[in-house]
Amino acid sequence: KSVFADIKTAPPIEVFHLTKLFMEDKHEKKVNLGIGVVKKCELEIVKDPKLTHEYLPILGNAEFTKAATELILGKDCKAIEENRIVAAQAISGTGAVRLAAEFMSQIMKRRTCYMPQPTWDNHFSIFKAAGFKHLKHCPYWNAKKQKIDISKLLAALSEAPEGAVVVFQAAAHNPTGMDPTKKQWKQIAEVIKQRKLFPFFDVAYQGFASGDPDRDAWAVRYFVKEGIETLIAQSFSKSMGLYNERIGNLVIVLKDPKHAKAVASQITNLIRNSYSNPPAFGSRIVAKLLTNEENKHIWLQHLSEMSDRVKTMRRELAERLTELETPGTWDHIVKQRGMFSMLALQPAEQCEKLIRDKHIYLLRSGRINICGLNTKNLEYVAESISEVIK
Ligand code: PMP
């Protein structure tokens, strides 16, 4: 008998399975609302004779980690000025989340983690794989009222044990599209301080919520200004369209610069034990983009245009659903921010009907990717959603 005979097939990963179904679908009207590209910089890198294929340092390309850290914390951040920062290049956002979880579990010895629900599917598996023993869900989204249940979230956090890790998303929350307001973030920060909890920020969509990366960094910068120590995972997959370059950054904000050396050495070990050192190309693209004023200006413009387009699509989808007298309320689509929107659809009947009969691909939770909508397919999508609900 083969030693592999008893291995069970793991369930497919929903978003990638949907993309496969979408690619195989031959229907002319097919729409992919499941998954959501910097040529000039790439060409300059390829032509630059100074850029070789030597190993990067274990903590990555320093020009990249500095620029990425400044992007999230702001150039004028006191923590940066006072050397209270450790940064490490990571294998995209997922790798940064995993590295953070490993550090919190293995080095900080944290065992309990709170995740506002719903959240990115992978958070749970990553924290579990990193060794967290107590993975707790806490309230975030009230599906009925289509808004954040802040009092329930605050209540759950005030009962969390000291030292527990809380997983936050900085902006353009996946999958709800709803971020806490400034007032709500202040309330959250207060509980974090009072209960001595440890916040972790996942930043996968900086610039997607407001169109402006500085505005989308408000919550993280507020926590840091308040003197709260934190870990921050950054992804450039969406914000720069660098999906397959796997480029991310992990930032650790300390209270005291004297701890930086030890923290950096432990992060160095975690990376050395796992993949030794990170790949270079993506880090060079991001660095070129962020450190050159002209490049950065063009990128910021793209981000802003993309975010405007998403807002227009949101408004038009909500308007058409309302005009079609689709049962339910649709103003939440307009209020939600970033790539995603949660539609209150029933997984088995309505979502599957959209995929099977209408060739419209979305998650069974009712999460749709607004970036998949355009002026050509919007009418078809609105009519189809309306039809499966009626
Ligand atoms: N965090 C969140 C909330 C995400 O939605 C994603 C991507 N879907 C990631 C992290 C990681 O993305 P990547 O590894 O492609 O950077």
TrEMBL record:
Domain of life: Eukaryota
Residue intervals of the Aminotransferase class I/classII large domain: 40-385
Additional free-text comment from the UniProt record: In eukaryotes there are cytoplasmic, mitochondrial and chloroplastic isozymes.
Subunit structure as annotated in this protein's UniProt entry: Homodimer.
Family to which this protein belongs: Belongs to the class-I pyridoxal-phosphate-dependent aminotransferase family.
Protein known as: Aspartate aminotransferase
Species classification: Eukaryota, Metazoa, Ecdysozoa, Arthropoda, Hexapoda
Gene label: Dvir\GJ13488
